[in-house]
């Protein structure tokens, strides 16, 4: 019997309609299109304006898109993993709610939080369950309503983040396609540089935490940038070496969209030319857990069966890593 690998067999995505452009941000904070474009590569982001809708809405829409495109019967899904840094509620699982709403009534489900690496780590978890032979259909959703935790008077963060969701289905493969190798890392040193200070067990919500804006994302951008550039490039280079992949063997770099300069630096270390580097940061900004599946959805038609994809991400914690996956179908 051939070894079972876990392959991505379908993708879907959703972004909200409202477009927050650099020009609109110029009217909100002291910034300008030229600064944002040259420092980050971002031109616009999508924002979920409806105050009654949380991250589950983005996840449900993305999963429904996948179900409609692929024709998968949601009642056959065994497991739903919701990669998110912005769950609907601090305690009740967003994944459980999403699974029920999409009709995945025979699935068990849970949330997975690793900041901007949530989806990458989720790929590891989803594929391990499938490759073990335990489950046959694992739905991995990456979604974040970043606008719910951003201070729109803070120019250092509000220009970066956007809202969105994406989903992939992992299924067993007997042709050796799907996830080949992974190199995942974390370092708790990161918690001082990228965090939300209050609202957790360390500093519960109080009138003071609200008044002092401690429920919003804080980032020491320069420091995070330095760690992101070196670590994302390191793991991507390492996974290539470990699998004897030259730059010619790599078909696509699927990198977390936090800053165009970080992605370019990673691609340079890997020796890739721009045509292999997937990029949609200009349109969506940093959607945290949704960047990787949004890329897969946007570029799905260009992928061919057998293509070698290198995934890379870096995020709060710090958390980071790289995954090597062989694409399993022609769209
Ligand atoms: O996804 C999770 C991981 N996160 C990341 O990977 C993000 C990593 N960090 C970054 O992408 C970048 O550090 C930022 C985009 C956040 C900032 O870019 P930077 O080139 O590191 O800028 P900086 O923070 O060093 O700021 C440079 C200057 C400062 O002015 P002075 O002190 O040189 O006079 C800032 O005050 O730019 C100023 N500045 C702005 N100017 C116009 C900061 N934000 C803005 C702004 N518009 N929005």
TrEMBL record:
<keyword id="KW-0511">Multifunctional enzyme</keyword>
<comment type="pathway">
    <text>Lipid metabolism; fatty acid biosynthesis.</text>
</comment>
<dbReference type="InterPro" id="IPR004655">
    <property type="entry name" value="FabH"/>
</dbReference>
<keyword id="KW-0963">Cytoplasm</keyword>
<feature type="active site">
    <location>
        <position position="116"/>
    </location>
</feature>
<comment type="function">
    <text>Catalyzes the condensation reaction of fatty acid synthesis by the addition to an acyl acceptor of two carbons from malonyl-ACP. Catalyzes the first condensation reaction which initiates fatty acid synthesis and may therefore play a role in governing the total rate of fatty acid production. Possesses both acetoacetyl-ACP synthase and acetyl transacylase activities. Its substrate specificity determines the biosynthesis of branched-chain and/or straight-chain of fatty acids.</text>
</comment>
<keyword id="KW-0444">Lipid biosynthesis</keyword>
<dbReference type="GO" id="GO:0044550">
    <property type="term" value="P:secondary metabolite biosynthetic process"/>
</dbReference>
<keyword id="KW-0443">Lipid metabolism</keyword>
<feature type="domain" description="Beta-ketoacyl-[acyl-carrier-protein] synthase III N-terminal">
    <location>
        <begin position="110"/>
        <end position="188"/>
    </location>
</feature>
<dbReference type="InterPro" id="IPR013747">
    <property type="entry name" value="ACP_syn_III_C"/>
</dbReference>
<feature type="active site">
    <location>
        <position position="256"/>
    </location>
</feature>
<feature type="active site">
    <location>
        <position position="286"/>
    </location>
</feature>
<keyword id="KW-0012">Acyltransferase</keyword>
<dbReference type="GO" id="GO:0006633">
    <property type="term" value="P:fatty acid biosynthetic process"/>
</dbReference>
<dbReference type="GO" id="GO:0033818">
    <property type="term" value="F:beta-ketoacyl-acyl-carrier-protein synthase III activity"/>
</dbReference>
<comment type="subunit">
    <text>Homodimer.</text>
</comment>
<dbReference type="GO" id="GO:0005737">
    <property type="term" value="C:cytoplasm"/>
</dbReference>
<keyword id="KW-0808">Transferase</keyword>
<dbReference type="GO" id="GO:0004315">
    <property type="term" value="F:3-oxoacyl-[acyl-carrier-protein] synthase activity"/>
</dbReference>
<dbReference type="Pfam" id="PF08545">
    <property type="entry name" value="ACP_syn_III"/>
</dbReference>
<feature type="region of interest" description="ACP-binding">
    <location>
        <begin position="257"/>
        <end position="261"/>
    </location>
</feature>
<dbReference type="InterPro" id="IPR016039">
    <property type="entry name" value="Thiolase-like"/>
</dbReference>
<keyword id="KW-0276">Fatty acid metabolism</keyword>
<dbReference type="InterPro" id="IPR013751">
    <property type="entry name" value="ACP_syn_III_N"/>
</dbReference>
<feature type="domain" description="Beta-ketoacyl-[acyl-carrier-protein] synthase III C-terminal">
    <location>
        <begin position="240"/>
        <end position="327"/>
    </location>
</feature>
<comment type="similarity">
    <text>Belongs to the thiolase-like superfamily. FabH family.</text>
</comment>
<keyword id="KW-0275">Fatty acid biosynthesis</keyword>
<protein>
    <recommendedName>
        <fullName>Beta-ketoacyl-[acyl-carrier-protein] synthase III</fullName>
        <ecNumber>2.3.1.180</ecNumber>
    </recommendedName>
</protein>
<dbReference type="Pfam" id="PF08541">
    <property type="entry name" value="ACP_syn_III_C"/>
</dbReference>
């Amino acid at each position: 019997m051939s070894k079972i690998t876990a392959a991505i067999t379908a993708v879907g995505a959703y972004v909200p309609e409202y477009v927050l452009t650099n020009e609109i941000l110029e009217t909100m904070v002291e910034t300008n299109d030229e600064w944002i474009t040259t420092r980050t590569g971002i031109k616009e982001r999508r924002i979920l304006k409806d105050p009654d809708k949380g991250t589950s809405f983005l996840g449900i829409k993305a999963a429904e898109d996948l179900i409609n495109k692929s024709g998968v019967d949601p009642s056959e899904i065994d497991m739903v993993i919701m990669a998110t840094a912005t769950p609907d509620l601090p305690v009740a699982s967003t994944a459980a709610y999403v699974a029920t709403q999409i009709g995945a009534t025979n699935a068990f489900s849970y949330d997975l939080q690793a900041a901007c690496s949530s989806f990458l780590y989720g790929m590891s978890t989803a594929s391990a369950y499938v490759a073990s032979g335990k489950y046959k259909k694992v739905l991995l959703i990456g979604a974040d309503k970043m606008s719910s935790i951003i201070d729109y008077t803070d120019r250092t963060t509000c220009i970066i983040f956007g809202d969105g969701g994406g989903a992939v289905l992992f299924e067993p493969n007997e042709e050796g396609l799907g996830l080949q190798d992974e190199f995942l890392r974390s370092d708790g040193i990161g918690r001082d540089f990228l965090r939300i200070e209050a609202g957790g067990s360390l500093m519960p919500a109080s009138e003071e935490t609200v008044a002092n804006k401690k429920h919003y994302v804080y980032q020491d951008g320069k420091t995070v940038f330095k760690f992101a550039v070196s670590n994302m490039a390191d793991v991507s280079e390492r996974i290539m070496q470990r699998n004897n992949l030259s730059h010619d063997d790599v078909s696509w770099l699927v990198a977390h969209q936090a800053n165009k300069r970080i992605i370019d630096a990673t691609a340079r270390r890997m020796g890739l030319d721009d045509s292999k580097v997937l990029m949609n940061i200009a349109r969506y900004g940093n959607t945290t857990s949704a960047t990787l599946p949004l890329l897969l959805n946007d570029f799905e038609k260009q992928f061919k069966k057998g293509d070698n994809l290198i995934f890379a991400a870096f995020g709060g914690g710090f958390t980071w890593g790289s995954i090597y996956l062989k694409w399993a179908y022609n769209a």
